[in-house]
């Protein structure tokens, strides 16, 4: 029924310290910090200015299936969290990103148009149909020490729909017909809902 069935999963993480200073007032007694500031809090050996943590599931789960009839389908779910802690103003910024994507592809030869004025036309070379759909959700949150609830700084929901057709005219020429729709709905009132569509064709020349 199908030629291959692939399952993908990948996790990435990084920890970054933008800068730190060694406090000259730091002092130890019996292996522990003994120096205090004006608020009677213990002073650390190192004073950090900003710390960042990035976690990525790229993807958390991804499935690709290739069938014997030259049909390919794929689905994946991605999730990312970017944390930036500023110790200068006691503020934490968190960027959350979630992406759900679907894909469909079909490659054939001797394609005959099923309807219209070209119902008797047969395309003898390779014809490749592609369809990609993605739902993306971005949200930036700010946490402050003096505020109990998080505040939404920016972010939006984005939907893309991209069908395309590639036809090999000859060994050197490839015709690409595309259609691209992008719709965005922001989370804040500082931006407006947007939607745009692109469509057209490209003719590629291969020089070998």
Describe the structure.
This protein has 208 residues and is mainly β. It has one domain (2-18, 49-205). The chain has no helices and 13 strands. The two termini are 37 Å apart.
Number of strands: 13
> What is the global morphology?
elongated
Average pLDDT taken over every residue: 90
State the domain count.
Answer: 1
Structural class: mainly beta
Enumerate how many helices there are, as a single number: 0
Largest sheet: 9 strands, antiparallel
The portion of residues assigned to helices is under 10%
Rg (CA only) = 27 Å
The ordered string of helix (H) and strand (E) elements is: EEEEEEEEEEEEE
Low-confidence segments:
none
Q: Determine the N-to-C terminus distance.
A: 37 Å
Strand coverage percent:
over 45%
Features:
208 residues, nine-stranded antiparallel sheet, two-stranded antiparallel sheet, 13 strands, 70% strand, Outer membrane protein beta-barrel domain-containing protein
Could you outline the blueprint of secondary structure elements for this entry?
Elements: E1 2-8, E2 11-22, E3 28-29, E4 32-33, E5 46-67, E6 71-86, E7 91-108, E8 111-112, E9 122-123, E10 127-144, E11 151-168, E12 173-186, E13 194-205
Antiparallel strand pairs: 1-5, 2-5, 3-4, 5-6, 6-7, 7-10, 8-9, 10-11, 11-12, 12-13
């Amino acid at each position: 029924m199908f030629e291959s069935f692939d399952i993908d999963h990948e996790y990435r993480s990084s920890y970054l310290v933008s800068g730190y200073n060694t406090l000259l007032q730091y002092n130890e007694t019996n292996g522990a910090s003994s120096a205090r500031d004006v608020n009677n809090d213990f002073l650390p050996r190192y004073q950090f200015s900003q710390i960042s943590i990035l976690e990525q599931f790229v993807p958390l789960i991804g499935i690709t299936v290739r069938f014997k009839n030259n049909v390919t389908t794929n689905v994946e779910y991605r999730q990312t969290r970017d944390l930036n802690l500023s110790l200068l103003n006691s503020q934490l910024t968190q960027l959350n990103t979630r992406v759900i994507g679907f894909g469909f592809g079909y490659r054939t030869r001797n394609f005959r148009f099923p309807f219209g004025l070209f119902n008797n036309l047969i395309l003898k070379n390779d014809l490749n149909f592609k369809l990609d759909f993605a739902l993306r959700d971005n949200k930036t949150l700010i946490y402050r020490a003096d505020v109990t609830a998080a505040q939404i700084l920016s972010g939006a929901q984005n939907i893309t729909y991209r069908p395309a057709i590639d036809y090999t005219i000859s060994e050197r020429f490839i015709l690409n017909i595309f259609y691209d729709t992008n719709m965005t709905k922001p989370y804040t009132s500082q931006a407006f809902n947007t939607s745009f569509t692109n469509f057209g064709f490209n003719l590629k020349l291969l020089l070998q």
